[in-house]
Amino acid sequence: MVGSDDFAIRVFKGEELVFDINEEAKVRAIKCLQDNIWGYALESGAYGVYYTRKRLWTQKQKIKATAVCGMDFEIDE
């Protein structure tokens, strides 16, 4: 999984491109949170979560995120 300068998030399996997702700005951070669930942060201040190709949640702030991490608040896993 990589973020590119052309505003795309690309997912590879080995050297083969599995899929890509176009975003609105350059990717600043990307992190796998669980199997097939990953978070991202963009240069524009947007950040969110994807489940494979489906965007589950997104938000935009004036303050730009510099890192992405995940945690289980219910402590059920």
Task: Report what the structure shows.
The strands form 2 sheets. The chain has a 4-stranded antiparallel sheet, with no helix packed on it. The chain has a 3-stranded antiparallel sheet with strand order 1-2-3, with no helix packed on it. The protein has strands spanning 2-3, 8-13, 16-22, 27-34, 37-42, 46-51, 54-60. The two termini are 24 Å apart. The mean pLDDT is 86. The chain has no helices and 7 strands. The protein is mainly beta and 77 residues long. Helices cover 0% and strands 55% of the residues. It has a domain at 25-77.
Question: In brief, what are we looking at here?
Answer:
This protein has 77 residues and is an all-beta fold. It has no helices and seven strands.
Descriptive labels:
globular, 0% helix, single chain, 4-stranded antiparallel beta sheet, 7 strands
Strand content: over 45%
Number of helices: 0
Query: How would you state the average pLDDT, rounded?
Result: 86
Mind summarizing the main beta sheet? Answer: 4 strands, antiparallel
Radius of gyration, CA atoms, in whole angstroms: 13 Å
Low-confidence blocks of residues:
none
The helix content is under 10%
* Broad structural category: mainly beta
Shape: globular
N-C termini distance: 24 Å
DSSP, total strands:
7
Strand order of the largest sheet: 4-5-6-7
The ordered H/E elements are EEEEEEE
